[in-house]
Amino acid sequence: MTVKVVTVAEMQALEAASEAAGVSTDTLMENAGLACALRIRQRLGGAAGRRVVVLVGPGNNGADGFVLARHLARWGADVCCYIVRGRPSDDPKKADALAYGVAVIDAAAAVGLPDLARLLRGCDAVVDAILGAGRYRPLDGLVGDVTALVNEIRSSKPNLPVIAVDLPTGVNPDTGDSDPRTLIADETLALCHPKYGIANFPGAGHAGRIKVLGIGLPDEVSASADADLPTEWMTPESVRALLPARPLTSHKGTFGHLLIVAGSRNFVGAAFLAARGAHRSGAGLVTLAAPESVYRIAASRLTETIHLPLPEDADGRVDASAADVIRARIDNYSAMAVGCGLGWASGTTALMDRLLLAGEDRPSMSMAIDADGLNNLSRCPDWADRLRASAVLTPHPGEMATLTGQTTSQVQSDRIGITSRSAASWRQTVLLKGAHSVVVAPCGKRCVLPFANSALAAGGTGDVLTGIIGGLLAQGVAPYDAARLGGFLHGTAAEQVRSKYGDAGVVASDLLDRIPAIMAALRGPEATRD
């Protein structure tokens, strides 16, 4: 099943369609609660003897909480459901949980919050099933007091996992706007489809790791969602089909020849990282076109790379005259990646104009444009109308702000919207980097990558991504597919590196050698057998 990002109204329509197809809302709720319980048991390394506090709210999210509590208790966990806001007196989900030995405390009958604080300090996991994707409201009164207490205890007990069902309490499910006392989760269990509120910021910053769980929608309802909803949430299953084929009869020419125009005296590493990323993503041949001073260093380390030294200016940046050197050889290449570490000056702006925008013979091949390539393009008049190539533009929020004339905070507050409008206006594929990177094709297809990883906050990781995308373009992968596949490979590599080293101290080159193994795992054993 293709996973889509949905609004509350869209999810409600899918549930109504499920009811019409014969799968009731109660069945979906039971499926959701079981799926959440299974995931919590997995995270805790078992249920028996574990102490779990489930915070229960008034709606369907609270009912999900009772269902998962019942299953955890059935498996031997010591579970307490703390009702934050009233449930109906004849609540069948509460009755079922009580029958399985779940303790239930109603906040209305408790003596303030000390009872809850004692439970939280002594438990092995906290489950947020208060509001979920219900109506967004300010966290006033007891609900706000409870979420603030959880956040306080979590800060003093950092190993206590806080798991949100569908959405952290306090996050607007459609926009990502968040109350100041929004609960901070380590993991959010998105039911069936992630909501826009945890794909957008600031909501995404409260969600932690996002795990999508199936809840048993009928196949025909899932098929309609796949056809009708615009925003895809990328999964290993959805990227597997995008991997370029590797036929046994192939040779190096089969997998394309990527030209990388990158580097300057102050940013030698950018050229190195982009070239290595291209090699690791499977490009058959890679040529690095870099300033003379960069060439002398890079050639000693990039032994598999072909080198094209370029004239440079007095500051060690590529001279604008290098555009003629490159264009004289342009027919030798199947794709281009340009921008990493070029620097940002009048000469590099002239280089970009002469290389990509000027003349009837300007390149039409697919290309990835990143970093200073984008900064310099922003200074070229009418660059979007003059760019002939089918490009993948990969700005981070600051570069997107430069390209669009907005502030970085404006970009971050509407990542999906601004990326969609920019891709349509520029008629190019745009990948807006950052937590939950957004990729949009000029035709309007769009997706969100499921990675939010502070380990990527290190210089050079964007250069690796550009090399990966460029390498995929060289192999004939279409720009939108190269952007979302490249971003997924890059994000998966970062997850693996973080699991080994932690959030701090990761360097960009740590990602490189993991790319081939990730691609092999996605292809599966049938594709790699002798």
Assigned CATH architecture of the largest domain: 3-Layer(aba) Sandwich
Helix count, per DSSP?
Answer: 23
Radius of gyration: 26 Å
Question: Which range does the strand content fall in?
Answer: 5-15%
Report helical residue fraction.
40-55%
* Top CATH class of the largest domain: Alpha Beta
What is the average per-residue confidence, as pLDDT, rounded to a whole number?
Answer: 94
- Strand tally is 17
Q: CATH H level of the largest domain: which superfamily?
A: Ribokinase
Major β-sheet profile:
10 strands, mixed
The low-confidence runs, each spanning 5 or more residues with pLDDT under 50, are none
* Cα distance spanning the termini: 30 Å
Describe this structure in words.
The protein has 530 residues and is α/β, with parallel strands linked by helices. It has two domains: 8-232, 3-Layer(aba) Sandwich (Rossmann fold), CATH 3.40.50; 251-521, Ribokinase (UDP-N-acetylmuramoyl-L-alanine:D-glutamate ligase). The chain has 23 helices and 17 strands. It has helices at 8-20, 25-44, 60-74, 92-99, 114-122, 141-156, 196-199, 203-207, 219-228, 236-240, 268-280, 292-298, 322-327, 346-357, 372-377, 383-386, 397-404, 408-413, 415-426, 461-474, 479-501, 515-523, 525-528, and strands at residues 51-56, 78-83, 103-106, 125-129, 162-165, 187-191, 209-213, 231-233, 257-261, 285-291, 306-310, 335-338, 366-370, 391-394, 429-432, 438-440, 446-448. The strands form two sheets. It has a ten-stranded mixed β-sheet with strand order 8-17-16-15-14-13-12-9-10-11, sandwiched between helices. The chain has a seven-stranded parallel β-sheet with strand order 3-2-1-4-5-6-7, with helices on both faces. Strand 4, helix 6 and strand 5 form a beta-alpha-beta unit. The longest helix has 23 residues, at 479-501.
